[in-house]
Amino acid sequence: MAYDFTKGEPAPQPESQVFKGYVATVTLHADRAEIKRKLMGKVTGARDSVIPLRDVIKVQCKEPTRLVNGYVQLATEQDRGQLRIATAEAQKAIANNSRTVLFTWNQRETYAAYLAAVTAAVQAQGGNPFG
């Protein structure tokens, strides 16, 4: 069904997608990602956040394994220094970042779906999710 733009009505907005990670839930909209954390998710210093997708300079990720949680981080200019460092301290900083959502082994399908959706959304905003 084609949309009639002549009536002056706003174009319909695409549906938001919700992904539940480890102690955090992310709602992906067409223009932003909203991350809400449970109380235990805030203990490490990470907070609830809203990330405009046009501000994302790189989508960093690590697939969850049986031994280690995975993550998807929407890196912005604030994270530029961390993008250069590849140490255990940097991995800890990524996990405690307010723009990162962790995923357990049992959530690997959700991890893959969120990674695909956020990568496509960043590209749709004109960004390069691969840095």
Describe this protein's structure:
The chain is an alpha+beta fold and 131 residues long. 26% of the residues lie in helices and 26% in strands. The chain is built from four helices and seven strands, in the order βββαβββααβα. The strands form two sheets. The protein has a four-stranded antiparallel beta sheet with strand order 1-2-3-4. A three-stranded antiparallel beta sheet has the order 5-6-7, covered by helices on one side. A hairpin with a 3-residue loop joins strand 1 and strand 2. The longest helix has 17 residues. The mean pLDDT is 83.
Amount of beta strand: 25-35%
Task: Assign a percent range to the helix content.
Answer: 25-40%
Shape: globular
Question: SSE order in H/E notation?
Answer: EEEHEEEHHEH
> Termini, distance in Å?
37 Å
Strand order within the widest beta sheet? 1-2-3-4
Overall pLDDT level: 83
Rg from Cα: 16 Å
Number of continuous helical runs: 4
Structural class of the helix and strand makeup? alpha+beta
Low-confidence stretches: none
Question: How many runs of DSSP E, i.e. beta strands?
Answer: 7
Largest sheet: 4 strands, antiparallel
Quick summary of this structure?
The chain contains four helices and seven strands. With 131 residues, it is of the alpha+beta class.
Core attributes:
131 residues, alpha+beta, 4-stranded antiparallel beta sheet, 4 helices, globular
Strands, helices and their partners?
Elements: E1 17-20, E2 24-28, E3 32-37, H1 39-42, E4 49-52, E5 58-62, E6 70-75, H2 80-84, H3 88-95, E7 100-103, H4 108-124
Antiparallel strand pairs: 1-2, 2-3, 3-4, 5-6, 6-7
